[in-house]
Each structure stands twice: as C-alpha cells, then as structure tokens.
Amino acid sequence: MGRNSASPDRVSSGDDNANSGGLGFHSIRDRIRFKRNPNPNTTNIDSNVKDRSKTASCPDRQWRANRSHHHTRSTARKFFLFPFRGRSLFYFFIFFAVFAFALASMVLQSSITSLFRPGSERGRLVREGLKFGSSLKFFPWRTARWFKEGGGLDRLRSEPRIGVRPPRLGLILGNMKKDPFSLMLFTVMRNLQRLGYVIKIFAVKDGEARSMWKKIGGQISILSPEGYGHIDWSIFEGIIVDSLEAKDAISSLMQEPFCLVPLIWIIHDDTLANRLPTYETMGWDPLVSYWKNAFSRADVVVFPDFSLPMLYSVLDSGNFFVIPGSPIDVWAAESYSKTHSKFQLRADYGFRKDDMIVLIVGSSFFYNELSWDYAVAMHDIGPLLIKYARAKDVGCSFKFVFLCGNSTDGYNDALQEIATHLGLPRSSIRHYGMNGDVTGLLLMADIVLYGSSQDEQGFPPLLTRAMSFGIPVIAPDYPVIKKYVVDGVHGIIFPKHKPDVLMRSFSLLISKGKLSKFAHVVASSGRLLAKNMLASECIVGYAKLVENVLTFPSDTLLPGHSSQLTDGAWEWNLFRKEIEQRTGDMENMNQRGTYVRNSSVVYSIEEDLINLVGSRNLSREESETLEQDIPTELDWEILMEIESSEEVERLEMEEIDERMERETGVWDDIYRIARKVEKLKFEANEMDEGELERTGQPLCIYEIYNGAGAWSFLHHGSLYRGLSLSARAQRLRSDDVDAIGRLPLLNDSYFRDILCEIGGMFSIAKGVDNIHKRPWIGFQSWRAAGRKVSLSTKAEQVLEETIQEETKGDVIYFWAPLEMDAGLTGSNDVLTFWSMCDILNGGNCRTAFADAFRRMYSLPSHIEALPPMPEDGGRWSALHSWVMPTPSFLEFIMFSRMFADSLNGLHTNSSKITVCLLGSSKLEKRNCYCRILELLVNVWAYHSARKMVYIDPRFGSLEEQHPIEQRKEFMWAKYFNFTLLKSMDEDLAEAADDNDFPSEMWLWPLTGEVYWQGVYEREREERYRLKMDKKRRTRERLHERMKHGYRQKSLG
C-alpha cells in the first residue's frame, strides 16, 4: 500500500480513532518520554547520540567505568561530581536504567525510520498523508447504505407476494481454471444456489473446471468476441463477473438497454493497479478514463481484502466494496508444503536445525516502503530481543527474522547496526524482503510474531498462511484478530504496547530451548481454524450483497435468508487433487506472497489504446500549430468585401448576357443539361434502398428497440424496419424510424420509460399515411429475438402467404406467447390471463385495469369494470409481437391512447406523480405501465371480436386461439365498438382544442393526433381563405399590368 496515495476522505485522524476505538498509527512520542532530536542530520549531535546509545546498550560496562573513574579522583572531587549516597544512589541507578532503556528504544526507532525510506513518489505521498497517530481505513461510502438495518429484502418478505419463478443470476467467468479464486467463487455460487437462485454460466475461455461448473449452471456458454452482442442480459436479475479477463462482457453491459442490469464485478488481483501509476506518469489519460468508465458501470466492485481498493482508488466512483475471505493463503500453504521441506529451507538460508527462528511480520499496508510500522514494533519487541537473542542459558540459539521491504534496499545492514547497538550477535537478527520467498520463510519459522501498530480491517493474510503451516502465532489484541482467534486456543494474544506482557506470552511457547507442548497444541488448533476461518463470513457477505444489489421483479420468488447458510466451509473436496499435484502455483505469487492471475486483458487493451493516445497527441500539436493561422476579425471583413464586390460583378455580367443574342448551340449540350436537371430532381425525391425493397409488399413489421445493445437482435430485409426509441442509438446504415422525431412526447425520459414499446406504436400511428402505406402492419420487440421467439424464415413465408390469401375478416397473428416471455412455471389451466397479469404487475393488475377502464368510460362504481377473460388454456400475446390490418391497428391505437391516459390519471395527483403500484422493484416502477400495456392488445382483440391466431415462430404452424363462436356471450362488444371509440376520441380532441384540460398532466393530447369535426371545418375554412387570397392577388396583379403596361427594368 505504500505505493498508493490515500484519498482524503479515507484517512481519518488519530484523535478521532482514539475516541471511537478505531484503527491507526499511535504516536511513538505518546509512549516515550523523550522527544526525538529535532535536527537529526547534524554531525555532532549524531555522534553524541551514537555514543550515548552505546553506553545505554551496555549498562554493566557503564557502571564499571564509573566505578574506576571515581577511584582516580579525590574525595572532595568525587562528592562534587557524584553527590548520591545510600538510598539516593539506589534510586539513581533505577532512574538511570529506565533512562538508558528509553534512550536505546528511541535511537532504535530513529535508526529504523531513517533506514526504511520509501522508494517512489507514490510512497512519498502516502507518507505525507499518514502521519504518526493517524489511521488508514477503507469506507464504502456509497455501498454501505445497502447494509443498513431494514435494507435488502426485509420489506419485500413482509409483503404478500406471488412468485412463480426463481431469480436468475448470470455468472461470467474469465477462465475456467482450478485455482483459489475458483474455489472461493464456486463455494459462494453453490450456497447462492441453495438459497434459490438459478445460475446461468458464461465463460470467456474453456478450461479444466468446466465439468465442475456444470454442476451449478448446467450447460456453459463459451463467449466469443462476436457473441457478447447476442445475449439478452435483461432476462437476468443480476450479473456477476469474476475477473478483469471478462472486460468485454462489461462493455456489452454498458450499452442500452442493458446498462440498468445490476452488475457485481469481483477483482482479485492488482495487475491493473500496478499499471495505473504508469498511465498517469506517461500522460495516458484515455486509458485511465477507459478503465474508470468500466469500473463505474458496475453497481458494486468487490475486493477480497482491504488493500486492493486503496490501490485502485484512482478508479473509485463510490462503488467499491470489500468482502473479506479467501482460501488463497491456505491454498498457497498447502501447495507449498507438498513440494518443500522445512529443514531443507533452513539449510538453504543458512540456519541450523536447532535454531529457534522467530519471524516478525507487519501490516500488509506497509510491506514495501513505509517503516513506521516496524519502528513502532521495535519498541515492543526490544526487550524480547535483548533477553532471548543474547541469552545463552535458554538451550538454543534464537534468530529473529524481519520480513519487510526489499532485499536490495540495505535493510539488512541497518538491522545489523541495530543489533550492534543492542549488544546482540550479528547473526541473531536478519532481514528478508517481500520480493523473496515469503512462503518459504513462513514455513521454516518456529514462531510468527505480528508486530504491527496498525489495527487492520481484515485479518492479516500472512498470519493466516502461518497458521495454515501449523506455526504458533503471537499477535496484539486488535479487534479483527480477537474476532477469530481465541487467546490460548488458536494463538497467543497480548495487549498492544506492553512489552512485559509480550515477554510472558512468548515464554509460554518456549520450553528448554524448544517449542513447548502448549505451543504445539495452539499451532494445531490454529491450523484447523485457518482452513475455513473466513469462509462463513465470505459466503454470507456475498449473499447479503446480492440480495441488496439485485432487483427482484414481481413474478420472481424471493431467495432464502442468509441465516439459512450454516455450512461455513470451502469446497475443498473438489480441489484436493489440484492442491496435491500442482507444483507451479508459487510462480503465481506476487511479492506480497499473494496468489494472482495473469490479466493479459490489461496489456492487450493498453496496446490497443496506446496508438490512439499517440494520434491524439499528434493532432493536438497540429491544432496548436494551426491556431496561429486563424484569421482575425479584420481578415473576415476584407474577405466579405471582396466576395460582395465579386457577387455584384457576376450579377451584372449575367444580366448583360441575358440581353445579348446567342446561338442555339449543339443539341448534345442541350440534352446533357436537361438530363442533369432531371437527375437532380429525381435524387431529391428518390426513395432509399429499404423503401425500394418494401415497394409492393403488403406487410411491414416494425422492430422496436431502445439502444445500441439491441442492434444485434434486429432483422435485416424487406419485411422488417427498425423503430428506435432513442435518437442517439439509431442504426447508421438503415432507414429506421425515429420515434422521438415523430412523437415529441418520447423526448421526455419519464414518459418514454413508462410507455416503453407502445410509445413507438403511438409515433407510427401519428400521421401513419406519411410513413406506412400498406394494408398490413406488424410490430416485434427486440426482446423476442433475445428470447428465441422471433419469426424464423419459414414462419415469415407462412405469414406472408396467409395474409395474401385471407383477405376477409379482421384477424391478429401473434407468435410470442405470454408464458414463454415470463418463464412461468405450472400449467396454463392454473394460471389464467388475469392471474398472470397480477403476477407481472405487483398483484395490482386487476385493480388498476378496472379503475382505469371505469375512469375511461365514466362508469359508476356499482358496475363491473374488469372485462372477463376466458380460462380455456389458450395462448395470449406478449412482447408486442403481432400483425394485423392497418385500419385495425389505428383502432387499437385509438383505444390504447385513451386507456393509457386513464391509467396515467390514476397515478397522478393534480400536477404530481404518485407512487407506481404496478411493480415492486425500482426497474418495474420506472417502467410502470409497460407490462399492463403489453397485455392490452389481448383484451382489445378478444372483446372487439378479432380473430386471434397463434403462429409457431419456429415451424410456422397456425392455430386459432379463443374462437369467436365460443366467446360471443363473454365479450363486452359495446365498449369496444368503433363508433363509440371514435366519438370518445372526438370529444377528447374537442376538449384539447379548446384548452379544456382535465388536469395539468393530461397525457392524451401528447400521444398522437388531435382531430375532430371542428378541426376539419377550421382547416377547410383556412384552405378556402388561402384560395381566395391567391385569387385576389392575381386579379390585382393583372389589373396593375393592364393599367400601366409591362416595363422592362433598366440595366445598371
């Protein structure tokens, strides 16, 4: 972490933490009564301190020197220089011993701090931001609100709900290797499956874990670069991406209509974090922006430890979150122990078999560059070093090994100098850097001492690895350690900053120069604890995160509560073979001893964009050069004068040429000029390619879409034409209809969201003769292709042949049945039309439809207002995928506009919008009317006596649904009569024409044409007035010519 600068909002002062019991650096000056030298660089003072430190380190020799010195002086002189006698002398020596020890500690800390210097600019910034007494914490300031009391699904679980399908999760794997990350993710996914989630798995690359993942997600889809655009991500309640390797999937989720699908992105490694400083140094801002946009797309970016979000702080948009817990350290320890021997490692490092090796590790935040952690630790372990490193009566040789920094930074020489100051053998203290074999040092250690002054938020990973090796650990009483480790059971916990207690705790592990029986018992218990120590917290953390991030539509079953997850262990049984046989895992360990994946996508994206960065820099330099050539205001005035004089001269020459006699010219020239004029006129009125293909065809199907992400689901050909609900996401090389341009209401995002696809239909119906001049019209949502219910080529042929043969009667053909759209389970005789509508609309479909219908027709409260729908088990249309005659379409739109306005009136109070009652999730409330309006065509077709025919989208077979003969006695034909609807439409148009609005937010006039008999008469009067004005001007012009004659204008 020394390489990263901390953001100001994440660095809290030590005072705050002292009051709140938080984490942090505690000032050394608070624990030492002597302040440091304010000018440590002065040579004389350094020599004095050095001499005093030598004296303090050898108190026995100091006493002997003082004694011999006094014998060489006179009695009076001795009394003058040393006036202490008796009891005063005893107290003096006590004070002097305390002073010597404090001075030695101060010099020791000063030496450590001056030696461990940060080696990079990033480390310097962290050091400046973190002074003594301050603390470093990660606060998920935006995502933390999801875990507040009362959040998640607690409210939905307390409400009545009818769910008919489990929630769907999409999991995108960067690869399918069997490694610690796969173990963690597989364990989490299996437990989510136990809570009721259905998981569909996609993978960027195939691998050895394919059969294992099939146990969770069934058939696995391997994604190709072209395959991302052919997946309908909207069918999932949420998407989980497991690594940086799946970045291309993130890109497809950044486009509409998938940009609102909840996304959880798990980042395990620091490959990109290590490249970010390089991007900033090189000025590659587009690369930083590229990754920042990608990270901001995710609703939550999850890290397995608290150091990674610090490293990625440049990309943080408030969506970072940490769920601690990973089997990486246990995996690394077990894999390493299979291929390495503890005694061989000792021999390789120059240690003897009977040496007692005490490994001292610090905070994971300061492994590389900051030394304060170790400087503070030296104050606590100083007495321990003096007692055991110098002692010869303990039966063995103690070796204290410090694990920090890099092996090439001269830290070892600094520690040897400290050993000399303390009077310790040079071989008793050693230093090894984090860029070496960290796991090997842990394996050959007898005792691991956690000497950090930082109270970390997560359990120290090196302690976990040491416990996995069966090594007893000693650690301060920090909350995160006490949370998992029981003192005297899994390890030794001592009060921080109390060296005497540390010495007593250390002595419990030593017996006759070897580890005591108590130490072996503690080590064994610690090993069992470490194996699954963080598994339960990790599993429950992900379960809570998923239920807080995902949106659960009204038709989904709610997942089980996280309290049901009682099995808090990793799925080791599926990975045991890989742990035992894999010998190359340690190559994937970084310098902090952390298992990492090689994220090649980071470097490939860097190579792709680096050329773009260079070209932009070149263009910027060219633009700076061109700025010098920009004309001034005086230049523009001179240029305009020149152009105006040339224009006057040209007009004069044309007038002269018109009055001069000219020869007729060559016939070929005249013919060429005439053809050129005709060609220009034709190009102005020429139809585009799509319009030419549809010429003469009786049918055109408009495919409704609302984003670039849906382009791959659209069809090409003369039968289809795109209908875009977003002007910015319209296909370039196509003749798609711009719905917003035809209906300005859709420019308002609120109305575009609540109306969805039917808003596009309103735009087609407005001035339909200007865009659609065919007898049949059809619509199909882009979602039909995404859910595999769009028309096949065979079904298209059958449909075209049928509408050409069947010219009698009014019929509607549809091919996307309701049960396929919703994924409903159970038989159709159990789920009726209105019960399915209730399920899809938060249980309020019948109530809302009846209220809107009653308001639309001004029915009294005692009259039934819900049109009956049969329970014959037939199919119903969904996804706005149907074809009908164009006059029938206009009649349906007339009914739909009035119904949508009435429905909107129920959700508006004067000028305010009330809460949507037709959905439970945020996305459903945003698209409030969409699902009920999607089913409206079924009610209209059934009660207006339209023949309803289902066409199989795959084979093209036709099957009539709900025959008219069987529904005559159930139809409410009087409410769906064309004459009645037309009169109601004219009444609304007259009120709109007179500005007699029933409310400020009257929707009906905004959804289409406003036309009634008064408008027709006014238009006829306007045409008559214009005609008479034209006749009057013609008569006046003829009269003026007869009176004065024709005069030719003079030249000049």
TrEMBL record:
Record keywords, A-Z: Glycosyltransferase, Membrane, Transferase, Transmembrane, Transmembrane helix
Highest taxon of source: Eukaryota
Molecular function GO labels: glycosyltransferase activity
Positions of the Glycosyl transferase family domain: 403-515
Bias type Polar residues, positions: 38-47
Region (Disordered): 1-69
Pfam family, one: Glycos_transf_1
Spans traversing the lipid bilayer: 88-108
PANTHER family: GLYCOSYL TRANSFERASE FAMILY 1 DOMAIN-CONTAINING PROTEIN, GLYCOSYL TRANSFERASE FAMILY 1 PROTEIN
Name this polypeptide is given: Glycosyl transferase family 1 domain-containing protein
The organism of origin for this protein: Nyssa sinensis
